[in-house]
Structures are given as structure tokens and as C-alpha cells.
Amino acid sequence: MSESRRTDDERASGLDRQIAFLEGRRASKEERRAAGDLTGQKARSSAERLLTRSTSGAIYAVVTLACLFCGPVTTTALVVAQAWLCCSEFFRICRMGGRMPNEVIGLAAAVLFPPAALVSGLLACALVIFVMLMACACWYVFTPRASVADVAVTAFGPLYTSLAFSSVVLIRKFDPGLTGALVTLAVMLSIWANDAFAYFVGSALGRHKLAPRISPSKSVEGFFGGIVGSVIVWVVLAVFVVGDMSISMAVLCGLVVGVAGVIGDLFESRLKRGVGVKDSGNVLPGHGGLLDRSDSMLFGSMAAFFLLLFGGIL
Questions:
Q1: Number of C-alpha atoms within 13 angstroms, CB side, residue 272?
Q2: What's the predicted TM-score (pTM) here?
Q3: Which of 52, 97, 175, 258 has the highest local Cβ count within 10 Å?
């Protein structure tokens, strides 16, 4: 055999060994690749989730700001849509738990609460509650398959979601101008700041679990960090927007609204854990359902409304 032929055979053999080596490495990673566990896959997946979450969050924020600053009517329209979605997601969770709410009655009430709040405030909301309870009673009387538990979740759904959300309308309507928009925005910002500060402080310093069986990621340190964030926003509101609000009143509002927001978050987490779901829905890519996004807002905004009302600000 000539020298050149032998050299060609050696090169071919070496190339075959290299190909076999690469194919072996690829085969050894096949399980991890199928599970999405490779480093490149994880990095790409994280980047995609962050982009999706940021985009949907930005759209949500822009729409919310636009409606707030356009006036009470657009704010009411936004709250109607949010309340309907939140109530629908709540009923979905209830159905997964074996309950059968009357969605026609519940969702109709959810749509009526925000415009009632805009037109005549709490008195009109009380009228909607009365009509809703009468409708639930009639449904229960004439529907043998309906249980008391079904009636209870039918009535509770719109109260928990829409009536609580209507506090945003009640805050916004007290001043149709810029001040009303800024106060309403500050209330919402304090609740968002509570969530953000709780996350960052909890991630950096969290050692003691706040409610491990309901929300394992929440810590006591994060809870207090969130309260600080809420108080900061309220103090800024008192100093730059609402001159009639004292610093002590602002601190009290920050504390109460922050605690109420955390209770709202834990309550919704308990609802989901009771039926074994991670998200209430998928209307907001990267965030889950709207109820997931608004759980703190429901209790926090209602607490803010009563504090501002009894404090003489509204």
C-alpha cells in the first residue's frame, strides 16, 4: 500500500472516531435535552419568560395609566373588564373544587358593581348586593340541584372581586382631574411597591417563612420589606400630592394597605392551593391570570378607600 493511501485511511479513521465521539456526546445529553435541562435551553427559556412577562406587564401598565388619567369613566370601564375576568377566574377555581356557581348571576353582578360605584357610590353598590342576593335566593329555591355552597360562592365571587375592585372607582371619582388620578395611581403604586419590595428583600434576606403551607416563597423579612415600600409611596403622596394628609396618617395608610395586600395575596394563594392549580388563568402571559395579578389590589384598594374616606381625604 502506498504511503499516500495509508495516510488517507488514517485520516478517514480519525474522522470516523471524531464523528462517533460527537454522536456519543449528543446521545448522552438526549435525556437532558428532552427535559429542557441543558444550560443553553435554560438560558433561552429564562430570556423568553422574562421578555414575555415584561411585555405583558408593560401593556397592562400602559392601559391602566391611560384609563386612570383619561378620567373616572375610562377607569370604570377598565375596572369592569378586570372585575369580570377576576370573577370568571374565581368561578373557574370553584368549579375545580367541586362547586357549581351560577355564573350568569355572579358575572352580571360583577359587571354592575363598578358603574354603580361611579353613579351613586356605596348606596348603589348596596342596591346591587340586594338584587344579587334576591337572584341567588330565587335560583336556589327553583333549582333542586343547587346547594347552599353553590349559592355562597355565587354571591361571594362578585363581592370578593368586583365590589372590592370598585374601590378604585370610588377613589378615582372624588376628583375627576389630575389630583384624583394621582391619588388613585399612588394607591395602586403602594400595593405594587409592597409586592416588589417584598420580593427583592425576601430574595436577598429571607430566612423565616411567612406562610410555608400556602406560599412557600414568602418570608417574614420580605413582608416587612413590602410594608416599607408601601409606606414610602404613601409618604410621597402626602408630601407632594395631598397636602391635607399628615405624615402619621400616611404611615398608617402604608401599614394598613400593605398588610391588607398581603392578606389578599395569601387568600388567593390558598384558593389555588385548595384545588391544586398554580395560576388562576392565563390571560396575562408570564403572570398567569388577572386574579393572580390583582389579588393584593382587591383588599389593598378597599382598605385604602376606607382610610381615605374616614381620614377626611375623600
A1: 19
A2: 0.82
A3: 258
